[in-house]
Amino acid sequence: MAEKSNGFWAGFWLGTLVGGITSALVLSRLGTGEDSDRPLGDAKANETNPELSGEDLARRNLEQKIAQLNAAIDAVSKEINQASEGVPRSPVS
Predict the structure, then answer these.
(1) CA pair distance 46, 39, nearest whole angstrom
(2) What are the extents of the domains in the chain?
(3) CB contact set of 89 (below 8 Å; sequence gap of 6+)
(4) Are the C-beta atoms of 52 and 45 separated by less than 8 Å?
(5) Average pLDDT of the residues in 35-56
(6) How far apart are CA 86 and CA 83, in angstroms?
């Protein structure tokens, strides 16, 4: 019975090691590709000010996303106001 327990733990630690290495490799490849989902300005912010920490970059990216959302909300509000006033909308391209 003790041999089965040792085999279980050996497999557990081996699986943990292999899984960790695999996930690290996959994440490094995803982060370096040109088609990655990196927020706009992230690479530029890192190039212009390499002293920024990850938290500062995350805060800056979050602020950019909030500004984009606010602009989208304003545009939709403007369309709704125009529609409710009877002003014909311009076609969406």
Answers:
(1) 12
(2) 1-33, 40-86
(3) 79, 82, 83
(4) yes
(5) 60
(6) 5
Cα-based distances in Å from 41 to 1, 8, 61, 74: 57, 47, 8, 22
Please say whether the beta carbons of 60 and 48 come within 8 A: no
Mean pLDDT of 20-31: 84
Q: Give the up-direction half-sphere exposure of residue 5: CA atoms within 13 A in the CB hemisphere.
A: 2
Q: How far apart are CA 3 and CA 89, in angstroms?
A: 75
The model's pLDDT over 49-76, given as tens digits with 9 standing for 90+, comes to 667 788 888 889 999 999 999 999 998 8
DSSP 41: T
What is the DSSP-derived secondary structure letter of residue 39?
Answer: P
Tell me the pTM: 0.36
